[in-house]
Design goal:
alpha+beta; two-stranded antiparallel ribbon; 7 strands; 20% strand
Length: 182
Amino acid sequence: MPQSLYLWTDIPRVPDALKSPRSDGKGQANNPSSSRVIVSGMTHFLLTDALQEALRQAARAARLNAYAPYSGFRVGAAVLDEQGRIHAGCNVENAAYPEGLCAEAGALSAMVLAGSTRARAVLVVGAGGAWITPCGGCRQKLREFCAPDTPILTANDEVMGPRYTLAQLLPESFGPDHLSTP
């Protein structure tokens, strides 16, 4: 992985070798040996093993830079945007505990800063005995930028964990579509 893949200020596109082939429009991938088709935000794409690994590596690198002097619990997150770019974030704690920032919020902020407003996949990395999923507040933040079927992946430093959709983690959610005028 190129080092610049992890920097918030220099977020390149995912290399073509990591990109997934487009679907043929019938729910079948053009490459039969690829992983399954994920439908997110009405656009078909394959979330290949290589792309999942790129997300995991970006989140791992972000996790190493987390500022967690109080809990010692470092978290990293990576968001794949609609342009194929990966944006990473880490948790930042604060002595006034409610003022801390979650890794997912940091990754979303980096995505918006880079000019994107749609996330196609999210990956969260943490340590410990249980898999880390976004907290309730982050699930709602993700809802702003993700379709209900957006894959939310979990991982630790070594392996991928369970995968969910945003709708599984935040069922019957309130989102931007509720505020649109008829």
